[in-house]
Structures are given as structure tokens and as C-alpha cells.
Design goal:
The chain is mostly helical. Helix content is about 40%, strand content about 5%. It has one domain. The radius of gyration is 21 Å and the shape is rod-shaped.
Amino acid sequence: MPDHISRRRLIAMAAVVPTAAALGAISAEADDGAAMRKQLKYQNTPAKSGAKCSGCGLFRKPSSCTAIPGKISPNGWCVAYVPK
């Protein structure tokens, strides 16, 4: 085995490392979103009281929330609900 890395091999490795890091970050983010939804007991339907995401102070039109990553349903609900 050689004691040095060829320039071609070094360039190929330099292209692979950032891509792998980005893919790892994306999958970690997806895992965090699922864990956060579970922790906050998010559901796609309103609460029994009728409270729903569209009436929450954390809701951002058209379908996002400051507490839960990713898209959510305006008709959903979670325990982080704060009335507007």
C-alpha cells in the first residue's frame, strides 16, 4: 500500500465527504421532526375541545408551526397549543 494518497483520490474523497455529511443532517432532521411530533402528541385532527392549529399562536400560514418541524395540518392539534 502506498504511503501517499493520489491527487485523484483526494479530489474524489473531497467530493464525497460533504455529500455524506449533508445526507446525514437531512436524515437527522427527519428523525428530529418525528420525535418532536411524538413528544408534543401532534395529531392531524382538532382537539376534543375544538382547538386546532389554525387558532394557535405558534401556527404559521399556510401549513407550518414554530414548535413542530415540517408541514402540519391547519386542522391538527398538539399539546403546545397556545390560543391566539
